[in-house]
Amino acid sequence: MSFSLPGNDLYYLPRDDLPPEKYDEIIRPVFAWPKIDSNYVFDDRMHFGFQLINMRQRAFNGYTHQLPPHGPREREKLKNMIYRGEVVMLGGFSGTKGELFYIDEQGELICRDPRAFNFGGAQDVIREYKRSVARRDYSSRGGKPRPTVLPGSLSGVKQPAALSTLNSKAAGWLLAAGGIYNGNPEGFRQAAQQLGGDAPAGYDQMMSEQAKGLLIAGASVAAGLGMGRVNIAGDNAMRKAAAAKPIIDNKGKAARNNSVVNSLRNSAETQNSIDKKLATYLLNKHHPVGSSKAEWFDSALGFNQRNLSELSKQIIFDASKAVKIAETRFGNKYDQTIAIAGMNGRIINVKFCWIENNDGVVRLVTALPTKK
């Protein structure tokens, strides 16, 4: 039971002492937040209770004239904590076990997709898991929690590399090399900071004056030999970090074209709309309208709710390529065709429909497959 938040499925990990055996029930923030936002209302007024966030369950009593919510600060605070992994939501049924976290045979907690969280949140969850294990006596179980019994749909899924390899110093070195060669050291520094762990230290180490000179010299030789850009994607850790690069490139592109500046000002809001649209509609096979699109994405490209992040990172709004198709009272509508690389190796052009609302935020509306 949670002592910091209402309900039985929300836990503030630093305080609530979630049992280790419950960590494999944690669901992705992109799934958790829409549920929380629809089931709770927030209040910014001062409160003296024990709860971490001033919130209560929304009244679903058929009364349609409820007072409007007046807790934007508390709401945003909880949302950030969800995406950082400080607050987690449990799925509550066996189908979610092991989808994001699972306990291996050695009693270690493994995260299948560290990028589901912001700012190294997966590592924070794993750290709290280890603290929870240390507070308990597992002498009768060989000194470790029991492993997760994975459902059939996940039992054969290839496991990811250990999280430590994604934010090691080696990842920071590769980012530094990529930053020098691509002429964008600040953008690649941000990618290192997003990975967390030892990646920032590795980046700074390679950006020292002496090492930096060697990197520049090596980049010049590579360019002179016609080698093209450094293939930083060859390393598994680098593939994880490189997801930030298209966003960085699009920011500069949008600014140069003096077009929609959502990439500069509202990239977080746009990304949130993409993740939410994929989770609740485009990859939801149970949606009454979107189920056919979810089936198409799965059969044609191999995307489903288990690998949502692999599709999400490819959907980048590009102001220079988006075509304005309509002006409405809600905002301007755009179409943009993006070549999507599937999990099965296929590359298919998909049309994505956007709207730039009156608040200046570009949000994903839907996707229209061009062919199977």
Q: What are the SSEs and their pairings?
A:
Layout: E1 10-12, H1 13-16, H2 29-39, E2 40-42, E3 55-57, H3 72-84, E4 87-89, E5 101-103, E6 109-111, H4 121-134, H5 152-155, H6 163-166, H7 169-181, H8 185-195, H9 199-206, H10 209-224, H11 236-241, H12 245-256, H13 262-265, H14 267-282, H15 291-301, H16 308-312, E7 323-328, E8 331-341, E9 347-357, E10 362-369
Antiparallel strand pairs: 1-4, 2-3, 5-6, 7-8, 8-9, 9-10
Helix pairs in contact: 2-3, 7-8, 7-9, 7-10, 8-9
Distance between the termini: 47 Å
Largest sheet, described in full?
Answer: 4 strands, antiparallel
The gross shape turns out to be: globular
Number of separate strands: 10
Mean pLDDT: 75
| Uncertain spans | 62-66, 161-165, 219-266
Structural class: alpha+beta
- What fraction strand? 5-15%
How many discrete domains? Answer: 3
Number of helices: 16
What is the helix/strand order?
A: EHHEEHEEEHHHHHHHHHHHHHEEEE
Q: Give the strand line-up of the largest sheet.
A: 7-8-9-10
Helix share bin: 40-55%
Please describe what this structure looks like:
With 372 residues, the chain is α+β, with helices and mostly antiparallel strands. The protein folds into three domains: 10-157, no CATH class; 165-247, no CATH class; 258-369, no CATH class. 41% of the residues lie in helices and 15% in strands. The chain is built from 16 helices and ten strands. The protein has helices spanning 13-16, 29-39, 72-84, 121-134, 152-155, 163-166, 169-181, 185-195, 199-206, 209-224, 236-241, 245-256, 262-265, 267-282, 291-301, 308-312; strands at 10-12, 40-42, 55-57, 87-89, 101-103, 109-111, 323-328, 331-341, 347-357, 362-369. The chain has a four-stranded antiparallel beta sheet with strand order 7-8-9-10, with helices on one face. A two-stranded antiparallel ribbon has the order 1-4. Strand 5 (101-103) and strand 6 form a beta hairpin.
